[in-house]
Structure to design on (424 residues):
C-alpha cells in the first residue's frame, strides 16, 4: 500500500469522500487521490516521493509556478506582524487601489475569502441595485456552491453525474434561469419570458468548468447588448480568467466591459481570496455605505493580501508573461493537436492561451450538451496513463489544464512525448 492509499483509508473515515473539495477525489478514476507533500515550480511531489509535472496548479492560482520566491517571502514577512486583526489595514487599501487603477471596469472592489463568496455577493449587489430578482446563468458554467448557483451542473457535480444538489430548497433556485452557452437566442428567449425581471446575466467569459469552452465570436458582445436592452447587469465571473488571459482578464482580452466582475484563484496566489467589484454606483450599494449586506471576519486578511498583491504586482510589472503564456499554450495544445492528427483521432481540443481541454469526443464542443458527449471512460484511461508517466492533470474530463510560467518548453515537450506515446 502506498502512503497515499493509507492516508486515503484514514481520510474517508473522517472527511466526506476523504477530500475537502469533490474535484480532488479520483472518483471517476477509481483510485486513491495522490496526497501532496510539496510543490516547486512546475513540479508537484506526493507523499510517496513521486514527482509529477503539475497541470492543476491549484486550479489556477499558481500562474507563476509553485512556491514562487517573492510570494513566499511576502507571506513570511507578513506573518511576523501577526496573522489577522479583523481591523482595517494598509495592504487592503493598496490591493484595492492596485486593481482599480489598472482595470478600467473596476471602480471599487470588496475582498472576500473565495470565488463562491465573490459570486454570491456580486449577485446580491446586482439584485439590490436593480431591485429585480431573476438571474440568468449558463448550463455548464460553475460559479461556486452557493444555493442559487447550484441549479445546473458544473465541473464537480457534472462528474458525479448529479444534475443538482440535495439540500438546496426550490425557492433558492426559483429565480435562476438557465441559458445555453454560446447561444444568444437562448438568452433572448429568457429575457422575453421574464421581461423586466432580470437583474443580471452571469457568465464565465471563457467556460472553464465544463472543460474549456471559449466564447464564439460575438457571444460576449451580444450578452452586453442584451443586458443593456433589458436593463440587466452583466457579471463576468473571472475567477479563472482574471489576471490569466490578460491582467484585465477576459474583459480586456475580448474588449467587452462587464458591470460587475468576480475574482478568485490567482488573486490570492494560493491563499483563500475572492473579490467582487465593478461600477461605482453598484458597489456603493454594498454595506456599510448601502443596503446590500455582506461581511467577512477574515476578509482582506493581511497574509492573504500579501500573497495576492505580490503576485498581481509581479504580473503587472511583467506584461510579457501574457505573450509567453500564449506561446506556451500554442506549444502544448498545438502539439497535442498534432499528435491527434498523426494518429487519425478526431477528438476536440479546445484551448485559449494557457487554458486547454482535450475532449474525448468527435463533436465540436461549444456548450454543456456537446461537452457531455465526451467519453469519460476514455478520459479516465488517459488520465491514469498520464499520472503513471509523471503528469498530473485534473482527474476529470470537465476541467481545464493550467499552464504556468514555470512550464518551460522542455517540460512541455516532455509532456507531449508522454502523450504521443499514449496515443501511438
Ligand atoms: C473556482 C471557481 C469558482 C468558485 O471559487 P471557490 O474559491 O472554489 O469558491 C467560481 N467561479 C469560477 C468560474 C470558478 O472557476
Amino acid at each position: 500500500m502506498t502512503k497515499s492509499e493509507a492516508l486515503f483509508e484514514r481520510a474517508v473515515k473522517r472527511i466526506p469522500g476523504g477530500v475537502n473539495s469533490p474535484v480532488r477525489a479520483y472518483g471517476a478514476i477509481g483510485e486513491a487521490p495522490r496526497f501532496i507533500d510539496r510543490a516547486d515550480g512546475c513540479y508537484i511531489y506526493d507523499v510517496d516521493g513521486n514527482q509529477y509535472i503539475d497541470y492543476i496548479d491549484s486550479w489556477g492560482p499558481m500562474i507563476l509556478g509553485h512556491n514562487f520566491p517573492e510570494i513566499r517571502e511576502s507571506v513570511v514577512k507578513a506573518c511576523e506582524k501577526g496573522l489577522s486583526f479583523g481591523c482595517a489595514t494598509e495592504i487592503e487599501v493598496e490591493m484595492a487601489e492596485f486593481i482599480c487603477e489598472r482595470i478600467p471596469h473596476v471602480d471599487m472592489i470588496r475582498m472576500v475569502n473565495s470565488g463562491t463568496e465573490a459570486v454570491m455577493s456580486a449577485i446580491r449587489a446586482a439584485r439590490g441595485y436593480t431591485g429585480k430578482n431573476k438571474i440568468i446563468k449558463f448550463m455548464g458554467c460553475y460559479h461556486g456552491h452557493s444555493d442559487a448557483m447550484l441549479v445546473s451542473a458544473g465541473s464537480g457535480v457534472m462528474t458525479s453525474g448529479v444534475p443538482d444538489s440535495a439540500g438546496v430548497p426550490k425557492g433558492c433556485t426559483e429565480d435562476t434561469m438557465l441559458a445555453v452557452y454560446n447561444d444568444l437566442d437562448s438568452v433572448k428567449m429568457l429575457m422575453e419570458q421574464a421581461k423586466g425581471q432580470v437583474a443580471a446575466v452571469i457568465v464565465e467569459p471563457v467556460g472553464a468548468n465544463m472543460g474549456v469552452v471559449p466564447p464564439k465570436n460575438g457571444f460576449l458582445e451580444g450578452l452586453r447588448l442584451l443586458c443593456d436592452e433589458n436593463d440587466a447587469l452583466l457579471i463576468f465571473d473571472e475567477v479563472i480568467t482574471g489576471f490569466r488571459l490578460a491582467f484585465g482578464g477576459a474583459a480586456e482580452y475580448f474588449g467587452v466591459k462587464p458591470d460587475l466582475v468576480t475574482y478568485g484563484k490567482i488573486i490570492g496566489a494560493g491563499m483563500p481570496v475572492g473579490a467582487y467589484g465593478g461600477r461605482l454606483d453598484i458597489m456603493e450599494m454594498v454595506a456599510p455605505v448601502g443596503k446590500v449586506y455582506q461581511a467577512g471576519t477574515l476578509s482582506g486578511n493581511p497574509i492573504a493580501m500579501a500573497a495576492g498583491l505580490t503576485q498581481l504586482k509581479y504580473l503587472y510589472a511583467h506584461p510579457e508573461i501574457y505573450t509567453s503564456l500564449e506561446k506556451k499554450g500554442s506549444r502544448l495544445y498545438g502539439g497535442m493537436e498534432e499528435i491527434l492528427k498523426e494518429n487519425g483521432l478526431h477528438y476536440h481540443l479546445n484551448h485559449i492561451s494557457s487554458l486547454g481541454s482535450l475532449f474525448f469526443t468527435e463533436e465540436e464542443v461549444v456548450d454543456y450538451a456537446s461537452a457531455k458527449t465526451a467519453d469519460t471512460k476514455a478520459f479516465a484511461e488517459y488520465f491514469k496513463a498520464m499520472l503513471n508517466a509523471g503528469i498530473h492533470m485534473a482527474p476529470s474530463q470537465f476541467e481545464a489544464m493550467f499552464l504556468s510560467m514555470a512550464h518551460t518548453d522542455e517540460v512541455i515537450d516532455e509532456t507531449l512525448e508522454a502523450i504521443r506515446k499514449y496515443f501511438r
